[in-house]
Amino acid sequence: MLHHNAPAPVSLPQLPKAPTGIDGLDEITEGGLPKGRPTLVCGSAGCGKTLMGVEFLVRGILEYDEPGVLMAFEETAEELTANVTSLGFDLNGLQAAGKLRIDHVHIDRSEIEETGEYDLEGLFIRLGYAIDSIGAKRVVLDTIESLFSGFPNQAVLRSEIRRLFRWLKDKGVTTVITAERGEGSLTRQGLEEYVSDCVILLDNRVIDQITTRRLRIVKYRGSTHGTNEYPYLITTEGISVLPVTSLLLNHEVSNELVSTGVPALDEMFGLKGFYKGSSILVTGTAGTAKTTLAAGFANEVCRTGGTCLFFAFEESPQQLVRNMNSVGIELTPWLENGQLLIEASRPTLNGLEKHLVSIHKQVSIHKPDAVIIDPISNLITVGNIAEVRSMLTRLIDFLKVNNITALFTSLLSGSSQRQEMTEEGVSSLVDTWISVRDLEGIGERNRGISILKARGMAHSNQVREFIVTSNGIQLLDVVIGPEGIVTGASRLTQQLQQQAQARAVRQEQERKDRELARKRLVLEATIANLRTEFESVEEELRQISHEEQTRQLKNSIGKP
């Protein structure tokens, strides 16, 4: 049999890429935009095309030392500079340092109509001069539609545009061209035919009165890339793209344990608490003390020297602190010394992505040991279930990678709803799931707590009744009746019955003890009487014996 040796794998050269420095974009493009080639960024008005181009240049200068040229056809240099100052981009400073050139090209159709001839030769000259004067590696053309409006002859223009893109490639500069979105096509003029290396589509849509922005890599020749639609935000620090499933499940884990803040609840876990860096979900209907459990956990984290971020979607910080004071959980000291930070807002204030970015930002600033979101069910008001699940998946992964313990509360709507069907569908994502519920008896409602799952440790299978007291949450001892565990008034009745039974047993025992003592006294008296009789008889016999001896002695003396 012949054995063929397999040839050694050949290491093929990878497509060179220019990192953008934009949050998340390099991640989904797997390294950046194609180096030395043009990239088309298209989208409707207000989706951030110009901003993406400007940020691509600024990050290139500041982070990768690649000078850049911005050629604008709509806005002047002064207008562009003023527009991006709020994002911390100092275009004037970069120009003064010789790292950036901004050239505003004004195209007047009436002038073109007068001369009758127009081509892009002048543009090549201006652009070539700008590139060579600072040794530019990056170029942004914003927005190219203005060129089309100036050309009466579309055929000539198309050949000129093709020549422009070839010229840019020959110059070896990484170029971003922005273009307006067309009706039923990516751009109005079919530019994607010419810029075939990389096309990025920005979309700005309004769903249920909430604005959401989405980014999609339509094509990327010669490179793999993320193919999903990715939410992105325009924040005070520029554009932030949020990859949905970019994180691999390969994060480090901790064996350190964190207390729940309720000692009796700790005892229900085999290892007496949560794993640090794990995610915990507390579900229950309204009024089942979910927020109190969350606040107790926050208090415990701070008490043991940690820091905690508390995102409240239902109560203001003042209301939360006041309400927790009434149950013996003092949060004010931790707020004052900075160990606890409460971020309170209505979910409808922002879209889901804005909430996610806000949480990311706060976590990066404060580097907390624990994050609490109370409740995640309110996020349903700003997104559908699939979007909320996607957002929470990213959030849970992000917190796990940073070894931050996360506790989420979630409202279950209706006691008849199957608990596994939590509205956000995140019960399978979390490591520990605690259920708090109403235990309805005859004419009363009580609260019960149980652990539905705890990955990596044994846990109790009991439903424990608990009460909220002025000293926090207290779990009550399990009382088992004829039909199982009893709660509330039934628990009290059961306890009274047990006390009555114990009292009856005790009384019966005491009666028997008294009867025994009486019999002992009678017996002892009888014994004493018998002993007295015996002593009398004994004395009498002794007396008779003595008299008999005396008589015999007299008789023996009296004989001769």
TrEMBL record:
Residues 520-547 form a coiled coil. InterPro entries: AAA+_ATPase, Circadian_clock_KaiC-rel, KaiC, KaiC-like_dom, KaiC_dom, KaiC_N, P-loop_NTPase. The lineage of its organism: Bacteria, Pseudomonadati, Bacteroidota, Cytophagia, Cytophagales. Residues 16-255, 256-489 form the KaiC domain. NCBIfam families: PRK09302.1. The keyword Hydrolase applies. Its EC number is 2.7.11.1. Gene3D superfamilies: P-loop containing nucleotide triphosphate hydrolases. SMART domains: AAA. SUPFAM superfamilies: P-loop containing nucleoside triphosphate hydrolases (SSF52540). Residues 1-21 are annotated as: Disordered. It holds the Pfam family ATPase. This is non-specific serine/threonine protein kinase. One of its GO terms (molecular function) is protein serine/threonine kinase activity. The keyword Secreted does not apply. It is an enzyme of class 2 (transferase). Keywords: Coiled coil, Hydrolase, Kinase, Phosphoprotein, Repeat, Transferase. PROSITE patterns: KAIC.
